[in-house]
Amino acid sequence: MKNRVINIGIIGFGTVGAGTARILMKRHKELQAQLGVSLKVKNIADLDMKTDRGIKLPRGVLIKDAHKILNDPDIDIVVELMGGINPAKEFILEAIKKGKHVVTANKALLAEKGQEIFRAAKRQCVSVGFEASVAGSIPIIKIVRESLIGNKIGNIFGIINGTANYILTKMTEECVDFGSTLKEAQDLGYAEADPTFDIEGIDSAHKLAILAALAYGLPISLNKIYTQGITEITPLDIGFASEFGFKIKLLAIAKPSGKEVELRVHPTMVQESMPIANVNGVFNAIYVEGDATGAGLYYGKGAGDMPTGSAVVSDISDIARHIRAGAADRMQSFDISGRSGLKVKKMEDVSTCYYLRMSAIDKPGVLSKISGILGDNNISIESMIQKGRKREKAVSMVLMTHEAREKDMMKALKEIKKLRVVSGKPLYLRVEGAHA
Fold first, then answer.
1. Eight-class DSSP state of 177
2. Between helices 305-325 and 15-26, what is the axis angle to 10°?
3. Model pTM?
4. Cis ω before 87 (30° cut-off from 0)
5. Which end of the chain is more exposed for a tag (fewer CB within 10 A), N or C?
């Protein structure tokens, strides 16, 4: 077994596929010394055979047909790095059916079809490695599944989308609007031509679904995650947040309480003094509470060819160790049975503090009307800012509330919007104080 060669087939030779191949080839000797086996990239499948990835592959390694990898009895590990749902799902299920171990970075696929994939792997006694699916270089899957296994996991707060974090950081530091910042992020390659998944919080929701399933024993529950993006955030809101001592971040939040867990992704005001508020640019950070360890903040690059490729190689190496020991099936330990009995809390029942900004006519009695509506809905005001005095003209009025229930806040906002003294749609942000 000492000289055993473990053959790897990679499907997808884009950014992450190229990074993975580069690491495997560059560190081949070191990996062999550490693992006691040789990791060989036997084939890489991609429809694009011409683009230069900056890697010199041996002749015959790059092929077009992924089925050649799936049907090769000598390939032990199939690495799916093409992304998307189909045909990625079919490729993974076919690999599992043929008794091959799988490594993937495909968070969308796992969040939407993970139940089917993990059940198939369990039946075939093969492993599915997915460290690279959440937070790039941060080994958060291992941390939650292995390092914190002796803990009951409490709250999780994550900045897990680098594109959104880059945009909000740039808007905060340079007081620029969302549209121009998004264009710059696209020009720099931080945002896709279609950035919907990043800026609307969908990518973060995919990752949160995976984390919550690991941390709390929930079935993967993507359709139950409340998701809101950052497109309505303005420099005005960032400025007001700063006056209150907060920063705005797109957070993925999981908060267990009793028999329920809150799962939500949305722009959030967090206190400037909190470490997660100072995670900037394209970096990711995940705050995790454990009952034995206390709070921990895990920080690193959340995307890119080498950071994500490093996470893929980590999974490949773990599986290789288990193959060498003759116990690769033991890697498959992701229980998706919903063993905990926990349920996802309805968003309307979530309670949090709120930031409200509205454009209201500057005249006596306006604040009392607004505060009256809030009071009638069990919402109390903690503090207020009004910029400028323009008698009988609309000015920005900003309120911070004490903790209130989402259902009550939505009802109050609907009533406030109907007031003749309020113009436009009130903007609201949820607030997380010292928790994050």
1. -
2. 60
3. 0.93
4. yes
5. N
Contact 251/270 with Cβ under 8 angstroms?
Answer: yes
List, in order, residues 6 or more apart from 375 with CB less than 8 Å away: none
Report the pLDDT averaged over residues 102-124: 94
DSSP state of 145: I
Number of alpha carbons in the 13 Å side-chain half-sphere of residue 235: 11
Distance CA 3, CA 168 (A): 50
Rounded CA separation 142/409 (Å) = 38
What does the buried/exposed string (b/e) look like for 293-325 if buried means 16 or more CB atoms within 10 Å of the residue's CB?
Answer: eeeeebbbbbbbbbbbbbbbbbbbbbbbbbbbe
Q: How buried is residue 251: exposed, middle or buried, by Cβ count under 10 Å (0-12/13-18/19+)?
A: buried
- What are the backbone angles phi and psi of residue 421, rounded to the nearest 5°? -85, -5
Q: Are 269 and 436 in contact (CB under 8 A)?
A: no
Residues 6+ apart with CB under 8 A from 395: 359, 360, 362, 386, 387, 388, 389
What's the pLDDT tens digit per position in 206-219?
999 999 999 998 88
Q: Place 335 in a pLDDT band, splitting at 50, 70 and 90.
A: low
Strand partners, 233: none
Which one from 42, 113, 207, 345 is the annotated catalytic residue? 207
The answer to whether residue 68 is catalytic is no
Residue 391: DSSP 8-state: B
Q: What are residue 351's DSSP bridge partners?
A: 405
CA 242: distance to chain centroid?
25
Residue with tokens 């990679």: 10
Amino acid (one-letter) located at 423: S
pLDDT at 371 over 60: yes
* Tens digit of each residue's pLDDT (9 = 90 or more) over 374-423: 999 999 999 988 766 666 677 888 999 999 999 999 999 999 999 988 88
Q: What percent of the chain has pLDDT over 70?
A: 94
- Domains along the chain with CATH numbers: 5-136+305-331 (3.40.50.720), 157-301 (3.30.360.10), 347-431 (3.30.70.260)
Q: Residue type for 327, please?
A: A
Q: What is the largest CA-CA distance in the chain?
A: 84
Tokens in use for 358? 């509205």
Residue where the block lists tokens 């950081």: 169
